[in-house]
Design goal:
With 332 residues, the protein is of the alpha/beta class. The chain contains eleven helices and 14 strands. It folds into two domains: 2-121, NAD(P)-binding Rossmann-like Domain (Rossmann fold), CATH 3.40.50; 124-283 and 305-326, 2-Layer Sandwich (Dihydrodipicolinate Reductase, domain 2).
């Protein structure tokens, strides 16, 4: 049994992580920590954890904790990951792993010295439909992938975050949403990309809340990406265009469904039953459970990592390039 400590008891923990852990029999929440005692007590009760701390370092010193899930705002990630590793804890950390490439490289060095697992949280990349799409692509049915269109529509007000870290700087949307988009690209095709065009504007907030990007992978695949915080209804749509056909997915609402159009006709691949709809209504997205299963498999050394710190360094490189280009615009 993997004894998990959760650091950070905000919305991402209560909405997603706790529900996912409860569906993984080999993982149990042993301790939780948050600087806000009320939030900590709430999650302690919901998780059934034996211990709760307002000082996360006390959780890291707890011998009954084998691994930690770090679900705090990004400014805390780097130091918390490093401290966790140095105190012998495996780490699963919400994106981004650090706020710059240097921070990720520092984490990589500590991880190599300790031999412990570090898994960046890229939950959407574990969405079941992506695995199905990958098999369709490998079969050759749609030919070589030519382009991928990704549109992440979000509603920041409806999310009701308990902190406003996303709005603290001009490029907050890059730190918040671009890792989701890039990690999904990583699940489909070649990961390393070159930024070709960036456009950002503000619609409802004083910072950039809408973003469009054009990138190109080393293999020449065109990536057309758009993301925002201002949509009424959240969605995450992905369209993969190949030489011989096309794949379409909606990762948020239909995480098992893949629509395929090729020379053999049109078809839809999906999971049967009503449970898939009930889970989404209850915010039990299957990607979070699958990521915890993967985390456990990495610690047991029975799986190969799907995301490494090197991948996170590549994501950070692209994010930093996008932020630099955004700072050249006149939005303040």
């Amino acid at each position: 049994m993997l004894r998990l400590g959760i650091i950070g008891c905000g919305r991402v923990t209560t909405m997603f992580h706790l529900k996912a852990v409860k569906e993984v029999p080999d993982v149990t929440v042993t301790a939780v920590a948050d600087s806000n005692r009320a939030r900590m007590e709430e999650v302690k009760e919901k998780s059934g954890a034996e211990k709760g701390y307002v000082n996360y370092q006390k959780l890291l010193s707890d011998p009954n904790v084998d691994a930690v899930a770090i679900n705090t705002p990004p400014r805390f990630h780097e130091e918390m990951v490093v401290e966790s590793l140095r105190l012998g804890k495996h780490v699963q950390c919400e994106k981004p792993l650090a706020r710059n490439k240097e921070g990720c490289i520092r984490i990589k060095n500590v991880q190599q010295a300790t031999g412990l697992v570090v898994l960046p949280v890229h939950n959407y990349a574990f969405t079941p439909c992506l695995a199905t799409a990958h098999e369709v692509i490998r079969s050759g049915e749609i030919g070589e992938v030519q382009s991928i269109q990704l549109r992440f529509n979000n509603n920041l007000r409806s999310y009701r975050s308990r902190s406003d870290f996303r709005l603290e700087k001009k490029g907050g949307i890059v730190e918040d949403l671009l890792p989701h988009v890039l990690s999904v690209v990583h699940a489909i095709t070649d990961f390393s990309s070159k930024v070709e065009a960036v456009e950002g504007w503000n619609k409802s907030y004083k910072v950039i809340d809408n973003l469009k990007l054009k990138l190109r992978t080393k293999k020449g695949v065109k990536l057309n990406c758009s993301m925002n915080w201002t949509s009424l209804i959240p969605s995450f749509k992905v369209s993969v265009l190949g030489e011989l056909g096309q794949i379409k997915m909606e990762l948020m609402k239909f995480p098992f469904r893949v629509a395929v159009k090729s020379s053999t006709g049109r078809r839809t691949i999906d999971r049967k039953g009503l449970r898939k709809y009930l889970d989404i209504l209850q915010l039990k997205h299957p990607s979070f459970r699958r990521q915890y299963l993967h985390f456990y498999g990495l610690i047991q050394d029975v799986e190969s990592p799907r995301f490494t710190v090197n991948d996170e360094i590549d994501i950070m490189r692209i994010m930093e390039e996008v932020v630099t280009l955004l700072h050249e615009t006149d939005i303040t």
